[in-house]
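Key idea: predict the complex, not the pieces.
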Amino acid sequence: MSKTQSGILRLESANTLKVIMNDYFQRLKDAVETEGKKVAWCTSVGPAELLYSMGFEVYFPENHGAMIGASKNADKYIPSALAKGYSPDICSYLTSDIGAFLQNETPMKRNGLDSVPKPDVLVYNTNQCHEVADWFSFYARHFDVPILGIHTPLGIGELSDNLIKSVSEQFKALIPELEKVSPRKFDMDEFKNTIELSRDACVLWRRVLEKAKHRPSPINFFDAAIHMGPIVVMRGTVYALDYYKILYAELDDRIAKGIGAVPDERFRLYWEGMPLWYQLSKMARLFAGLDTCIVASTYCNSWVFDDLDPDDPFYSSALAYSKLFIVRSEDVKEEMLQEHLKDYAIDGVIYHDSKTCPRNSNNRFGLQNRLFEKTNVPFLEINGDLNDPRCFSEEQALIAIETFIQQLSAKIYS
Ligand code: SF4
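Result:
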């Protein structure tokens, strides 16, 4: 087997992951088919805890977008959204998801769902971007159901008390509207329990990611991008918490046995930006073949809401969901990245400039140069897109990545 084709070690927990993700989709299916059960759609960093606490099954269109990307069908669906007037320059999760819907297709067919689960309400938070509001509006119009939003300001520097209180009030304001469609009324104890379950799962997820500080790292970015499924769609439930106990134990076991996610780890990289969903396994093999482990990423770290606090559920929700990387100012992002580079002993950074997601492309305003001046950690920028493969030149990226690793090798081992 050649270097670039060398194997990557699959985590055993992936078998359990498959089962619990399938069970999650069955709950959604059941909710659609059962009178009295209700489905809320939620953005990936939206108020999932509030929705779960009020008895909704919660569906996340971004997870669906990632599934479409990973199934390598986005370019087949995007033209249908463009024909409806959606621009090729906007989020390709949005265009591929709406396009798939218009073509009556979904990768969830393998989980027994013929279509996306019909929503009873759609709830977004603009903490990640404003496009989610437009995305959800398409479905609100189509299904003629209510759409609710939390409007978090972008580019947050200081997390002032006033700002958090104003976001917290927006969380509270959702309740009377949700109660018009929810299976049960809001209950503070339920909400606190859900917040606690979410916080505990987030802490475990953080500890899973922190295992990558070990050399060799027992987990890499490509594993984490798959194993983050439960923290995205099931945080606030016992299912996510239970799953991360299993994954955590497996990583501990790998460390005890000296097993690395990349068999011969020599270089440790940081991935800044969205995954290239249609290239995930190819990229995993490519980096493994270059003895390079991508040990940390902004993306996977974005679901660490460990500020959630059952003793102060609204304020802490507002804090946790306003604190995440994507919603912060350039200065704060720079500081956060600087810490990650140090904590994970990073040799180099890869910035994925994702054509249709400016919010997750942090190399557009000089941050990459400023960070390099402060840390002396070299970086590489690659152009691509999260879902649309037509924006990505595999050959160009391959040459750039291999050259970058050669340069790192010369720098580290000379
Ligand atoms: S953050 Fe990027 S990928 Fe996510 S919904 Fe917004 S534009 Fe799409």
